[in-house]
Amino acid sequence: MGEQKSQAAGKPGAKRQFRIWRGDETGGDLQDYTVEVNEGEVVLDVIHRLQATDAPDLACRWNCKAGKCGSCSMEINGKPRLSCMTRMSTFEETETVTVTPLRTFPVIRDLVTDVSFNYEKARETPAFAPPADVAPGDYRMQQVDVERSQEFRKCIECFLCQNVCHVIRDHEENKQAFSGPRFFIRAAELDMHPLDAKTDRKEYAQAEQGLGFCNITKCCTEVCPEHIKITDNGIIPMKERVVDRRYDPLVWLGSKIFRRGQVPQTFVTSAQQSGAAHSAAAHGGVHSHAGGSHDPRHEAEAQKGVNWHRQVPHPTAAPVDANGRLPLTELTFDRAAAPSPFGDDVTFPLPPEHLNFAHPSQDEPKH
Amino acid sequence: MTETRIERHHYDVVVIGAGGAGLRAAIEARLAGKKTAIISKSLFGKAHTVMAEGGAAAAMGNVNSRDNWQVHFRDTMRGGKFLNNFRMAELHAKESPQRIWELETYGALFDRTKDGKISQRNFGGHEYPRLAHVGDRTGLELIRTLQQKIVSLQQEDKRDLGDYEARIKIFAETTITELLLDGERVAGAFGYYRESGEFILFEAPAVVLATGGVGRSYKVTSNSWEYTGDGHALALRAGATLINMEFLQFHPTGMVWPVSVKGILVTESVRGDGGVLKNSDGKRFMFDYVPDVFRKQYADNEEEADRWYKDPDNNRRPPELLPRDEVARAINSEVKAGRGTPAGGVYLDIASRLPAEEIRRRLPSMYHQFKELADVDITREPMEVGPTCHYVMGGVEVDPDSGAAFGAVRGLFAAGEVSGGMHGSNRLGGNSLSDLLVFGKRAGGHAASYADQLTSRPKVPVAAVETAVETALAPLQRDTGESPYTLQQDLQAVMGDLVGIIRREGELVDALGRLAELRERVAKVSAAGGRRYNPGWHLALDLRNMLVVSECTAKAALERQESRGGHTREDHPAMDPKWRRVNLVCSLDGDTVRLTHKPLPKMRGELISLFDRAELSKYLTDEELAEFDALAQKES
Amino acid sequence: MTSTATRPRGARARAAIAAKTLRTDRWWFQPLITVIGLSAWVAYATVRVFMHKWYWVDAYHYLTPFYSPCVTDRCVEGSSHFGSFLPGWWIIPDAALTLPFLLLFRLTCYYYRKAYYRSFWLSPPACAVPDGHESYGGETRFPLLGQNLHRYFFYAAAIISLINTYDAIYAFHSPKGFGFGFGNLILLANVVMLWAYTISCHSCRHIIGGRLKHFSKHPVRYKAWTFISWLNVRHMQLAWITLGTLALTDFYVMAVGAGWFNDLRFIN
Ligand SMILES: Cc1cc2nc3c(=O)[nH]c(=O)nc-3n(C[C@H](O)[C@H](O)[C@H](O)COP(=O)(O)OP(=O)(O)OC[C@H]3O[C@@H](n4cnc5c(N)ncnc54)[C@H](O)[C@@H]3O)c2cc1C
Ligand code: SF4
Ligand code: SF4
Ligand code: FES
Ligand code: FES
Fold this sequence. Notes:
Chain A: Keywords: 2Fe-2S, 4Fe-4S, Iron, Iron-sulfur, Metal-binding, Oxidoreductase. The complex is a heterotrimer. By secondary structure, chain A is α+β, with helices and mostly antiparallel strands.
């Protein structure tokens, strides 16, 4: 009964052993602490007690303390969890609890990591496209039609799924091409949105988000604190939707036999990601001549032959290194000579359909 | 301080706060073509708005077509005990449906009615079902939608200008510590990156404050660490004024056990669905606390109260459903009389009232909240609950139409919980989320046009920046002072014990004395460690904001000699129509907090005639009633 | 006081945590039993498929699913319902038309993929336990790109389930006409489980309703989708149960066929 429990809460707490990773990008280690733990407390409470006593500058994120904001993600005994929802009673009295920052993202200090990777991926995922002819207030949707998307909108962006996904956790180099489960369900959410006007979300998920990297080992679903069925309801349906479009055996065979060159693939080439140009080469991808555009219309146009009036997409990012500089010394550069001023992906002679003319005023904003 | 590095940015509009109000303001400023910065203390999308559960009130009339803005306006004024700024309540009631519909075009997915419209739910104080909602995570939907709208604007900029951040940029985990003025005009904002401790200076002619509330000054609160009243304090220091600071909403049912989750909200729907409050003797005590004015609507025996759930038309309501302030006070008295639970609350029992299956179906998130946080199965055991500090009605005094701050400052705007007036002395559930959208949009739009009509850009004075740097670094350079955590605990104790739900003159005087002492100690606070993501240092800097805001609250609470909404004086237990005509305005004179009286603006004729005389007579002075009668006469 | 325009930002390092994983639970247990379970089953099935005997009980018309339909010229009389047109070379399984598809169906099944990627390929062995490989391309390239063909193996599997159903019905036969024995129960249970497994397939869920944008316009398909979703949640369990029922059915037929024990007959 609640009554007995509260009486127990009045008693001074027991001492427990903690190991917490302290440090920053220059290094760090697990430090031992002995902390008092009262009944009913969660790991975040213990961290707060440490801040108030032994370690006032111990860095950690939190906001709501009720599993609603997704700030307090960390790894507890090796498992990615929300610290505000991890009760101390789930551990043995004598057990040492080990707390570390998320491993997949760069560390800032102690338990705080730089999760900007996720915000960058969020920014690349095309937003909801409102239907052109429906006025605000006139949106009509049935509950059964919105329920699937609503499940994904429960996401509190704790990024635990992003952190646990082995595609980037164990293979840093995939970060470029892989958006992660959080953004697969974002794409799925929009694809299942009854009124979303964009129709190429599946292709986008496949070509730009790296859906194919996922091997449906379901760790994202296992750690999701909102119990979103990320794989079963999001990723697998997206894969199936891609199959609808791309792997229909006849279409697929046809493209294999008659077109050799497959459907053009574009890669995410946003400027803020270091080494964008390199990695495309490293992953065997082809740089699109439509540049960093995600728009399949541009893609299609680019294939159509010379079109002097077509919209020229913005240039792809310069092949800068991790520090934002052009790799100018031959010694450290991964190619034998200086990078081609035309872009690494351009071979000569240039096929005529890739010739472009860009009127100088074309890029001026229309508003 | 010459070697300190400061990063400089130029923007047209700087929005401080990335909750619902801040994001909506930023969207509006960006749509007006302004280069906009959004600043937030925590990560993008984690602001307090994310925690709101119930819904957003908007008179769309989807469920009951009789609902319209007039009814909503009436409900809001009643809820605030007629102390609301009528113009804000009017704008809010009129514009919130559009703001909600707009969200759908940004991609929001609210729960639907049978005919495919946005579904609306009942909530305390609202006459008709009015709250647009998504299960019990409406706040999350709202903030995520706005966040995604901003992303879509950034994608547009990327397409047109080649850079996502060309016209709107988010500075997450960045705290503003000072607003900088060029004379009376806002010239910029100064702060630090939490991550690195590096300083950052925004030069901007217009600043929108959307920093939320002050709940962190209380021991038991549903608010997060962010709610240290930064916006309130920034506004005060910049020369603006605060109103209604004595009014704080205590939600009657927060969790009290385990200690670690003390304050976390237990939604009102538990009581709406049949939950009853019992003291440690097992008595259903709310029958002893029905005030005389409510005798007509509320039952005085259990049989009748229980019949109400089935047959609301022929029975009076159970007293558990009295307004939030009444219930909070009743619980408080029971605990003070020694009939509370060991953890200092009372029992909220739904287990003995509904079958387990039904509880799980109707209250899924409460079931999980108690299961996961307290290991309590609410289908079998009662919950332990007690009042928790939830919302501050008071805030920056603003012009209702534009959100521009009053006082001796120009270019400062405020929206959301940080602004005051809209909710009067008590906020209705669900009115906050729509408030954020309506006034967020207004503040953003007006900030943009203010920036437009300026002939010269205000300049940031170098001296002010240097002082700001010194103030910010001071706690790190002292090593003799007290720990910020101790000071925070002491402040919370003073506010919780002496300026809590029930206030007494003696205690308030005492509180002011202690706050003055704390002020000395806070001035000498020291933080261990370096500048890099150092929570101790961050808290040390927030403390002075909490302190000055607490002083405003204590002073105003002492001054207002009546009980109304979120302010209860044991020594003045009744509502006094004379006090209804007064707003207490708080300003800063050098270092000292000043309090002045200001008459409430008078409601326009067509608005006051929306009420009937019997109701008004409870709130208005005889003089005002006479005016009302004259008006009614003229019309008929 | 110096002013800069932007914050210098270089590449940042992850937290230097020495231990590869800090998990303290028995995370290796799941992959271990998966390896044992799947290996044992594959070993049994391989042996049985190349045994080329004891797959048919003529008296009761029991045919093991491993030999259904029997299409080589080695098939004993009565066991091949669809003709026997393949040569009886030992390397050719007697159900050469169906087994490859069944194998591919299960190989590309979303659940089995998870199971063997984790336990055989260690990619990753368990959540938050490092992947055992230097580099990783997932299912983006040949051959794993082929996993996307699962849909088509599902169609094949549905047809094969029909054949198995035919077998199960055909088995209600005894030397005296209609008959009913314990073997029938096993065959029936196996077929029911096979159907449950096949229908709960993710591809099936997608085809039946998942691909729709507006459920409200297709109420019947929505109902069907809801039912399949219910089954789909149990897909993993069904995957293991059907391995069990398949092996059990086969073993029973083998035992009766070899005369190790007699079928328990209820009617005739
Ligand atoms: C548990 C709970 C449930 C609720 N349920 C409901 C409900 O059902 N319906 C309803 O209408 N209302 C509800 N409310 C109230 C409502 O959620 C809040 O009043 C509202 O979200 C406030 O929004 P805001 O935009 O003003 O501020 P917030 O969303 O709190 O945002 C404040 C922002 O300001 C930033 N900030 C603060 N200080 C600084 C600084 N110094 N420098 C830089 N940035 C700063 C913060 O980082 C944050 O981003 C609830 C509140 C709580 C706590
Ligand atoms: S299922 Fe896919 S996305 Fe999820 S963790 Fe595994 S590989 Fe990553
Ligand atoms: S999907 Fe789940 S695990 Fe991933 S970010 Fe959202 S809430 Fe977190
Ligand atoms: S603190 Fe918000 S999820 Fe843990
Ligand atoms: S059979 Fe397992 S997913 Fe299709």
